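Thread: sanity check for a docking pose with zinc ion

Original post by kr_44:
Hi all, I'm comparing my docking run against an independent structure prediction. Below are the sequence and the ligand SMILES. Could someone generate the full complex and paste the structure tokens? I mainly care about where the ligand ends up relative to the chain.
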Amino acid sequence: MNGMKRLAGAALAALLLAGAAQAQSAHPAQTPEARTAARFAAAAKDRAQLRLFLRAMPKGGDLHNHLSGAAYAEDFLAWADADGLCVTTGPLPAIVPAPCDAPGKVPARGLGQTNPALYGRAINSLSMRNYNPGADGALPSGHDQFFSTFGRFGTATDGNLPNLLAVARDYAAGDHVGYVETSVNPSAMYDLVRLARDTPWDGDMVKALAALEPGIPAMTAKARQEFDAAEAEADRRQGCLAQKPRTGPCAVELGYQAFAVRILSPSVVFAQLTAAFALAQADPRFVGVNIVAPEDDPTALADYALHMRMLQFLHARYPDVKLSLHAGELTQGLVTPRDLRFHIRQAVEVAGARRIGHGVDIAYEADAQDLLARMARDRIAVEINLTSNDVILGVKGADHPLALYRKAGVPFVLSTDDEGVSRIDLTNEYLRAVTEQGLGYADLKAAARASLEYAFLPGPSLWAAPRTPVAACAKAGPACDAFLAGSRKAAAQWRLERAFEAFEASQ
Ligand SMILES: [Zn+2]
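Reply from moderator J.T.:
Ran it for you. Here is the predicted complex with zinc ion included:
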């Protein structure tokens, strides 16, 4: 069996080599980019070959990524093992705090060896693996299963920020992703939330902000310390300290988006948003603000317009802070038609979002064409998460609005959302963009470039216009070096271009 596989593999390799030689001799004057596009076209019908091609392809950034959703269930179980946590033994196993000697829970330590069946069920319960509605304790919809995993693995994230950063970089490096913009809150944020938690919301934002302001300097200082320590520990664990220059996971740049949880009370959401804006203002590693949790939750729906006004209010006080907002992660039937009509528009027009997360219900928005035209005109990018939209909303293929956004000229990026929960990687999302959405090599390359153009990395862009670099970088040299030294965004874009040159030269 193995011998036959090897033979078949060798024969395939010989065929591919012959094909490549033929392709090269048939088109001796082809540019590396054209040759790469031809290689892509030849691979597009063979998923395994396409996967190989797309994995090696440079992808720029992953702009829609939740740090705790990026880790895999096996990562959480390993941390639970190391931290002495427990796993519950019911139909939907969860990671819970010690002690573990009570009925219904067992130690996570060594669970893979002592009880592989429970370990396997725990992986299913902590992710979308083997999701089969109603079976094996799984919840009856992908939406419910997906969102409920966070509560079941949350305990394993406590105190594990260095591990979370490390696995996010590790998975990104495997995908040839150079930058991850990930949603994560410092634990210090809860000091500020505590101040507001018991205050009833009376709608007075000026007063609510004044009550929080005295706590902001201590909160941002504590958050800085937490992230300094976590980044240093992640570097130590991944062996980055001795690397000059950094390579692999150590070379992956991280940007953080602090966020509010839209299903909590208005007082808490306002405090979280205030903390998120203050962090983005005070610490350059916090590059933006987001709002998360199921948009169809009753509280999220009831307070949607209020949250947009809160964002507008805080944005006016922190005008330099950039917003990427989950909006329109909805579809027909999940909510009433009323709630499909205005979420994306208010995120853009009231809150001032620079990017929209998901935007799946765009075709149900009032005056959708007008909104699309505005997004295209104002270069408001949409973050497309194909697997997430499929498993949570059941929207995929021709039902997905990516084609509508592209037709309207709205910039888009491809991103993972929660790669660990969905058990995917960004390569998989590129693959789906090809096989389900009909994107070609040039489209994917443009999406990779867009993922840095629309990243919240500070500094001006490398590009003065599409395919035209700024004057300083018309050619490599001291002027360009100086420009790149002053812009993290342009430096990342420069690295992406060099990575494309190397990738295309290798085709
Ligand atoms: Zn998301």
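Residues 64, 66, 326, 357, 417 surround zinc ion (CB under 6 Å). Hope that helps with the comparison, let us know if your pose agrees.
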